[in-house]
Each structure stands twice: as structure tokens, then as C-alpha cells.
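User: what does the whole thing look like in 3D?
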Amino acid sequence: MTSGENYLTHGSTLRSWLLTVDHKRIGIMYLALIAFSLFLGGIFAMVVRFHLWSPGGGLVSNDAYNKMFTLHGAVMIFLFVIPGIPSALGNFVVPLMVGAKDVAFPRVNLLSFWLFVGGAVLFVATLVVGGIDTGWTLYPPYSLESSRGLGILLALTGVFLAGFSSILTGVNFIATIHKMRAPGQGWFDLPLFLWALYATGIIQIFATPVLGITVALGFLERIFHLGIFMPEYGGDPVLFQHFFWFYSHPAVYIMILPAMGIVSEVVAVFSRKPIFGYKFIAMSSIAIALIGFLVWGHHMFVSGQSKWANVIFSFLTLLVAIPSAIKTFNWLATLYKGHIVLKTPMLFVLSFFAIFGVGGLTGLFLGALATDIPLHDTYFVVAHFHFVMVGAVMIAFLAGLFYWWPKMTGRMYDERLGTASAVLIFLGFNVTFIPQFLAGTRGMPRRYATYAEQFQGLNRLSTVGSVLLAAGLVVALWAFVKSLRSGARAPANPWGGATLEWATSSPPPHDNFAVAPRGASPYDYTGLRQESAEAGWVPVREEGAR
Amino acid sequence: MSGPTRGHAAAGTAAPPEERFLAHHFPSMDAQLATSKLGIWLFLGSEVLFFSGLFVAYGVYRANHYALFHYAHHFLDWRMGALNTVVLVGSSVSAAWSVRCAQLGQRRGLRISLVLTLLLAGVFLVVKYFEYSHKLHNGIAWGAACKPSAEILASLPPAVQALPVPKDLGTFFSIYYLMTGLHGIHVLVGMGLYVWLIGRAGRGDFVPGYYVPVDSVALYWHLVDMIWIFLFPLLYLI
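Assistant: Here's the predicted 3D structure for the full assembly of 784 residues, as C-alpha cells:
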């Protein structure tokens, strides 16, 4: 690309951003909103951690603590972890990876963004009207008591809107991957990130509507006393739990599958080696998505559901370990004898391996009935899902953000700052959450504003860790801001990636590609050589059509 | 991208009339049609799961309160339900006809079939309005607010009248109002979409090379129809 025209300079009015149908701009707007959500949820988390510095709780009232951990969970899950990778990074790279000019339905994409904004605004409004203290799971009967005011209604509506945003994003990605692929790009020429988002899309489309109807029923139950979920009107609160987890367990895979997709991209590019076991990684994404629909009952082992249901759900849950392990071993095999380049995205991915390994294996303790019963509702559970949602998903999100940052902004970031943030986040994360495993196995229950004296040491260690973790995130933010202000110009292909998004300029032009690309093997690096650090990687020689 | 190229997109130097509706990011009208079809099917899959929560709730409560559900269905007039079933199936036929007309470029037939679909949808809602208002007028509301009047109790079959009125009658009607209400909202949305289609058909937007909106809305409309076909027996007949 010789001209200076790119998607960032294509129109500069506010309207050209807010009403854009360009997937790249929509991705950037999502990114801004999601970063803000991470910040907001992080503030709540820090309040929680500092409150737990002493056993009696030192910072806020018990009521305020309950609202803090609820909003921490709700904001992080619905506004950061679920939409983070698909909506922000996915929106930006999916059309680029298939060589298309945009997603299949650009206007639907914009609608999806604004639905998400609506959901986010309602969450903030929930906070303004006094917050909710139900936990992010919003279990009735407690959450739908008739004494509750506007807060719960706003939160339910917020979840509803964010959910529909997620459905429309899923529809867009699946249609794009099916129908918009570049000429010559077969299904097995797709980057694994797209296989992951395809699997994610299946869950978004078929699980999220169940959450939608559930929160709609909760909303109507609270106003009209229908007798669906509230026992006092003849309803069944366990039905809510079934509906809620029918979505919310697959939602865990909405979070982790795209993260696994990023890992598959980064590990291959920075090992300078084709990904090991491409088809196994691709198919294990689909397997996780499908099995993931059938395991929701493992959240309800102590809800009073039948013991046979418990046994079946436990068995199905353990099955998920198989595709997850297939992925992990294939990644490790990709590293083997690779020419490993320790840039920031790769550092994040290496910490992902360590943390996801622990997060996944501790999941087995919770999926197995005998060990789940004593561990249920302890800090062991808290530590487990933070290992997966923060340690794996957030770290993969950062890996992806550093990886695609040059493509998105046209600027390189400071590698030293990136490295520092990766190291700080890895250390801070482990110092925060390993003590919570220990506290959990020793019986510390989750969600209480106070705790027994003997857990003080572990809690203080955890709080110290959370400060390190926050510092790591601040350093990452610093790296991005510095890059925007004074970063070096990014070449089209700074990392030597073979997927199509690296075939266009950084940042890409409004229509994505100056010349419509043809599909190519996404992990074949033999056609690339490194010109220089500034010029990045270029094709070995032009040979015309493959 | 896949599938054979059809004749209508072929040759000729002047751009065919449908090309003005070709979005910039599609290579051809065929690609656009195929993509839109996939998109609408995925959305309909999502809609099925959206309703599934209510169907599961129906199943659970029916299993838990079998006698109640059996008793309560006598309050629903199967003749009204049957009438509405005929009306909706008729509207689906006319929706399918509208797609055929659009594909063949029969503009008059297209307008007639679109208006007919809209009218039948309106008839459905009018019948539904009379059913709702008759029930609410006689105290048949949802949840604890459900207190049937003596008048409506007297209209039940004699064998049913002999039974005591169950105290949690409202549980059935909560489900009834939820399911038919959500379905009714979908009918309303469909009517809005048909008004939009009628406007565009009047401007002559739809030609054999471009009928995606007619096709997509008709698919949506068939789903709305299908859901009613399940609701009618579950609520009115058993």
C-alpha cells in the first residue's frame, strides 16, 4: 500500500464512527467499551480484595461488599469475558482472515454493538440505583423478592440486551465463515481462530436465547408474580438454575474457545512452525462446543436434582477434558523443536499454558461428584474459575491484543513494556489465586464479607497478588498508550504470520485488501522471510497464483 | 460462493436491475442470497431455543400439576384456537405464494399475497384479543391474580363444573399468557415486517434477481406459524 488511506482515516466525524458498518471500526469501539468494563470490574475486584485484608472486613459495609462482588462478577462476565475476544478482536480479524471486505451482515453487526452498549448502560444504571447483592448468578427466590426495586430489573434487562448482541455476533461470524471465504480457502485452510469462533458461534446462537427467555421470565416474575420461579407463587427456583446454567455453562466455552483460538495462532507464529495436529485442534473446538451443551447440571450437584442426573452430568463433564487435553498436547507439540520467539504475545501464551493447565485440572475435582460436594461453594471454586476466566481468557485476550495491535493501529508497542506486563500479570495472577485454592480446600466459603481468623495469611497474600496483577494491567495499558503516541510504524506483517490478515497493510484500508487475496495454507511459513525489524516479513518471491 | 451460477446474473453490458441492491462486500447476487439465507436460518434456530425455555417450563409444570393442566384447558375455547390455526396456516400459504411471485417477477401477485398475509395476521390478533379480553374480564389472569368468575365457571362442561376450582389455577394461565403473549409479539413484529415489504414491493424493489427480504420474512413467518401449531394442541386440546 502506497497511499496513506486506511480505515482509521476513512472519515473522521463522530458519526463516521458511531454509525459505521465497517467491522474494523466496530471492533475498535467494542474494544474501548470492553477495556472500560475490565477497568470497572477491576475496581470492584480491588475493593473486594482490600475488604478481605482482615477477617472482619475492613473497607466497606457487609451490604456494600455483597454488591461489590456481585457487580464484579456480572460486569466481568457479561461485559468483559464473554464479549471480549469475539466482539472486539473477532470483529476486527474475522473478515480479514477470510479475505472478505466485511462480515456477512454489517448492519446487524452495528445493531449488535448498540445492543451491547444498551446492556452496558443498564449495568451502570444498576449501580446508580443502588446495585444488586444477589451474586452474578441472580438465583431466585432471593433475587426476585418483592421488596426488590429497580436494580434487579435493570440488571436483567442488561443481560437480555447483551445476550442478543452476542447472538447476532454469532450469526454474523458463522455466516461469514461459511459464505465469505476467499477463493481457494477451504474449510481446512481456515485459521484455527476461526474454527474456534465458529464453535463459539454455535453456542452463542443456540445457548444465549435460553438465557434471554430466562431473564425475561425473571423480569416478568418480579413484576407480575407469575409463579414460574418463585415458590411463594407456585414456581420452581430450581427451574431457574437449570435454565440459567443451560446457558451459563456453555458460556464458559464462549469465553475459553476464542481464547484457545488465539493461542493456536500465536503459538504457531512464534514457534515458526506449522501448528501440530491442525484437524484435531479444529475438531476439538467443535467437540467442546457440542459436549458443552450437555454438562450444565454439574453446577447443581447440591441443588437436589436426582442422583442419576448428577452421575450423568459428572460423566459428561469429565468428557470435556478430552478435547481440552487434545488441544493442550497439540500446542505443546507445536513448541517442540520450534524456533521459539519470546515476544509479548508468546509470553502471554506460555503463561496461558501453565495457568490453563492448572485451571483445567482443578476442574476435574469439581466435575467429579465425590470431590465436588465438599469443595462446592468454597474458594476452591473461586480460584478454579478465575484460573480459567482470568488466567486463561484474559491472558489470551491480552496475547491477542498485543498480537493484532500493530494490525489494528498501524503502530508497534514497546517490547520491554509488553514483557514487563506479561511477567507481572503472570506473577500477580498466581499470587492472587493459588492462596484461594488453599483457603478453599481448608474450607473457606465463598461470597462472605468476613472469614475465620486462620485464613488471614492466605487472604493477605491474595490481596498482595491482586495489586501485582493490577500493576501488570496498568503496564499493558501504558504500553498501548505509548504505542499510540509514539510507537514505530508497523509493517504489514511484523510477526511473520501466514494468515490473510497479515497480507494487507497495517492498518488495513477501508475495504480491507487492495487486491482480493486467495486462500493459502495458514501455517505454512516457508514462503516468508524477515526483511528487517522495520519492514517485517515479506514473501520470499512473487510467483503469481499458487 | 458455492453452487452453480444461475442464468439471470449472466451477460449483458447494462447492469441488471437487482444489482443496485448488491451490498459492496458480496461478489455476486447469488452469494448475497445464499449468505442471507444462512443468516436467517441461524436466527430462526436461535428463535426456537428462545421459545424452548417456555416449552420446557410447560412440560415441567404439566408433569408436576397434571390434574390442574387438564382442568384448566377447559377454559380455553378450542373453536377460537382452531379458527386461528386455520388463519395462520392460510397466512403461511400466502407468505409462500409471495416468495413465488417475487421469484417470478409477478408484481401484482406479490402485492396481493403480501397484503393478504398481513390481513390474516391481523385477523389472528383480533381473535386473540377477543380471547384475552374475555378471559381477563372473567378474572382469568395469571398467577395469584387468577380468580375465575361464577359466569365463566358456569360455562364449563358439567363434569368439569363438579370439580373444585384448584387454588393454583393461575400457574397454568401464567404459562398460557407467556407462551401466547411471546408468540403474539412475534406476530406483531411479523406484521411490521410485512408493512415494510408492502412498501418496498409498491416501489418495485423486488425482481427475480433480488427477493431476499421477501424470502427471509416468509421464513420467519413460517416459524411463527409453526410455533402456534405446537401451542394450539398443548394449550387448547390436551
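In plain terms: The first strand of chain A starts at residue 528 and ends at 532. The interface with chain B takes residues 95, 100-102, 104-106, 108, 167, 170-172, 174-175, 178-181, 183, 205-210, 212-214, 217, 220, 224-228, 233-236, 239, 242-243, 511 of chain A (CB under 8 Å).
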